[in-house]
Design brief:
Elements lengths: L2 E9 L2 E3 L5 E2 L12 E7 L18 H5 L3 H7 L12 E2 L15 H13 L12 H11 L11 E4 L1 H13 L5 E6 L4 H8 L3 E8 L5 E2 L1 H6 L5 E7 L11 H14 L3 E4 L24 E6 L12 E6 L6 H12 L7 H13 L2 H23 L4 E4 L6 E6 L10 H12 L1 E2 L1 E2 L8 E5 L4 H18 L4 H9 L1
Parallel strand pairs: 5-16, 7-8, 7-10, 10-11, 11-12
Antiparallel strand pairs: 1-2, 1-4, 2-3, 6-13, 8-9, 12-13, 14-15, 15-18, 17-18
């Protein structure tokens, strides 16, 4: 140890050594009358801090806990199509894939105008421009569920809206109630955040209505959110006003807020109506998630929103402020699309919406009618959105162990890819996306028929019944 003595001159704020470094006096001991102080300085170098001896970089718990059921299932499938048949993909929920469903001219013109204006090249507020938020509020506001700009949070697609909604309502250890079958993102987000995901049943025999008794049985003191998807992905179902009111009654009884995934809002077939959940109730706070992706047919533009419905001030200012804080983690939605948003909402032609819905309904009817006549399959006719779910009577297809095996072999033999419903937490169904061109839908149905006819086997009971006749 090297100890040296220095003579320093003190002032009222400390001491100045010969190196010019300030050192505060700990006490008055040894101070001479002339303000001169002899100090001893320990020149021993500081101990080296503890450090890793080798590289050890690992993914976070959140990364390890993030699990996408669709990717996990699809990536594990052996998807080798029949080389003699061109591939028909009915699995992707993107209406733009085949080019037969372009957006409205007014939508693209609005984006061009926003770009040409040179006004939207910079950062927007994390929650979106006030003018754009007000445009969304004006578009969706109604006397039963009024909205102002401050009730709207603009997001990078509906997926981020759902992410923010779950994040602001739930803590690790809480649980959320999610439909089964249901969109896989809810589970992906929940589990990654340390949230328990409880699945409530939808009933195919009742056009995928909620099993209300089962739903209510899952609620406990740790339930922080009820997710309701209407119209539904993957089912294509649309809940009636009466059924929505029954769901809201359960939420009100148990004081559980609702995350309403309404990305397919207004995408309902003629003869069917379904109001927004917020328009039917005032005592249940609702975060409604939506966006441009599906109704305007621009999923890649990444424009979504959260509508905060809280007429009884149950959320208060805290949830709105929480969403603002969470949105600041990234800088929100695309500024260019925000600049075009008011024009998109106000100028898209009603004929565009009508034509889109007409096409989706026609394709759904083609698919339903064709598959309904195939032994062993039980399609459920949709009422909106872009999907149809098809049940598989597995007893009649002994060559396959489950819906994953069934759909995998259909790719190998017929080059038709439908998404197994196991990806949506539901067994022995598959989902078809009905946005493909009509001739492709007819060809796909014909191949599915050929596949089923080849593998269908009567059950032993069926054989006995035929013998007795």
């Amino acid at each position: 140890m090297d100890t040296k003595s220095y003579l320093v001159q003190m002032n009222r704020n400390g001491v100045y050594g010969k190196s010019g470094v300030i050192a505060k006096s700990l006490n008055g001991t040894g101070v001479q009358g002339n303000g001169v102080h002899h100090v001893s300085v320990n020149m021993c170098p500081a101990k080296a801090k503890n450090r890793r001896q080798r590289w050890e970089v690992k993914p976070s718990e959140m990364a390890n806990n993030t699990f996408n059921p669709i990717r996990a299932i699809v990536d594990g499938m052996k998807l080798t199509p029949n080389p003699d048949k061109p591939m028909i993909t009915l699995s992707i929920g993107d209406p733009t894939v085949f080019g037969n469903l372009p957006t409205d001219d007014a939508v693209t013109q609005a984006l061009k105008d926003a770009i040409d204006s040179q006004k939207y090249n910079g950062y927007a507020p994390s929650v979106g421009y006030v003018k754009s938020r007000q445009a969304v509020a004006n578009y969706y506001s109604c006397p039963e569920a009024p909205l102002q700009a401050e009730d709207v949070i603009l997001t990078s697609g509906c997926s981020q809206a759902i992410d923010l909604a779950i994040s602001v309502l739930c803590n690790p250890g809480d649980n959320i109630l999610v439909p089964s079958p249901g969109f896989s993102l809810y589970k992906t987000l929940g589990v990654s955040m340390g949230i328990t995901v409880k699945l409530y049943n939808l009933l195919p025999e009742k056009s995928w209505e909620v099993d209300l008794q089962h739903l209510e049985s899952l609620i406990d003191e740790k339930t922080s959110c009820l997710v309701v998807t209407n119209p539904s992905n993957p089912c294509g179902s649309v809940f009636s006003k009466e059924h929505l009111q029954k769901i809201l009654k359960v939420a009100s009884k148990h004081c559980v807020p609702i995350l309403a995934d309404e990305i397919y809002r207004d995408m309902v077939f003629p003869g069917c109506t379904s109001p927004s959940m917020a328009s039917l109730v005032s005592d249940v706070p609702i975060l409604s998630c939506g966006g441009l992706a599906k109704r305007w047919l621009v999923p890649g533009w990444r424009m979504g929103w959260i509508l905060i419905h809280d007429r009884n001030n149950i959320f208060g200012s805290e949830i709105q402020q929480g969403l603002v804080k969470l949105s600041q983690r990234i800088l929100g939605a695309c500024s260019i699309v925000q600049g075009a948003l008011e024009s998109i909402l106000n100028n898209t032609s009603q004929s565009f919406f009508k034509d889109t819905i007409s096409f989706l309904k026609s394709n759904s009817e083609i698919c339903f009618n064709e598959l309904s006549t195939i032994p062993g399959l039980n399609p459920v006719m949709p009422s909106g959105a872009m999907y149809i779910m098809v049940g598989i009577e597995m007893d009649h297809f002994p060559d396959f162990k489950d819906d994953i095996d069934f759909t995998e072999r259909m790719v190998m033999e017929q080059s038709v890819f439908c998404l197994p419903a196991s990806a949506f937490e539901y067994k022995n169904y598959f989902r078809i996306v009905v946005t493909v061109p009509e001739e492709m839908m007819l060809e796909a149905c014909a191949r599915i028929r050929e596949f089923c006819q080849h593998h269908y086997r009567p059950c032993s009971r069926d054989s006995n019944d035929l013998a007795q006749r």
